[in-house]
Write a structure and sequence with these properties.
The structure holds two protein chains of two kinds. Chain A is of the alpha+beta class. Chain A is built from four helices and five strands. Chain A has one domain: Heat Shock Protein 90 (2-Layer Sandwich), CATH 3.30.565. In chain B, helix 1 runs parallel beside helix 2. Classes of the chains: A alpha+beta, B alpha/beta.
Chain lengths: 149, 115
Amino acid sequence: MTAPQRVTYRMESTLESVNKAEEMADRIAAQAGMDEDTRSGVSMAVREAMINAVLHGNAYDTNKRVNLTLEHKGQELIVTITDEGTGFVPEEVPDPLAPENLLKGSGRGIFLMRAFMDEVRFRKMNPGTEIILIKRLQSSDLDRQEAST
Amino acid sequence: MSMKASTRQVDGITIVDLSGRITLGEGSVVLRDTIKDLLGKGQKKILLNLGDVSYIDSSGIGELVSAFTSVRNQGGELKLLNLTKKVHDLLQITKLYTVFDVKDDEATAISAFAK
């Protein structure tokens, strides 16, 4: 097993930050030995959480930043994203799979995070919201990790 | 990679060949503008060829849904063609696969539009 890895970035509230975070998530997931499908899901969940932070949280405010931490610890990949917005109540976000919401043009981000990660937690900060995304490595991921080291 | 859209006409159907990523920002805007432009010209039978679309995020999914409802609200039809596995899976988990009329073959898709 490789040594624990932890990197933290303080990012601007821009689309470029969203794209960069997605790329970094894919990279750390690859280093952790995840297969392409799993990596793709992880990077999409990170992209959605970053969109949440940059667009809905910080509303592209140039004075507000997003903190991104990517951590590979033991058998888990943990991504923490914190914005400086006004916050929201995740339970109040409508279910995008409900028939009355299926044809809505937005509201699928949190659902996608939950679909691709093993755990998604939200924490109210002062100010802002912290989203913690966790993906557990499978034994096949750990084998790939061993093989690449 | 940014998204590109080009249109062609086959038997009265407008086929939009999309390539790249339909994501928040440019990709979603290109799709929105393309549909708006086609509807403005009265072209209401639209086949979106997603064969070269490598990635769609929640914003892109929202844009596809908006395109579908805009076309339908104007009495037209919008169908999807050539989904990659990634896009197919995404539409499955969001329960949108059965909302859209999805085809794997261009000729079959064209003949499926109302005459």
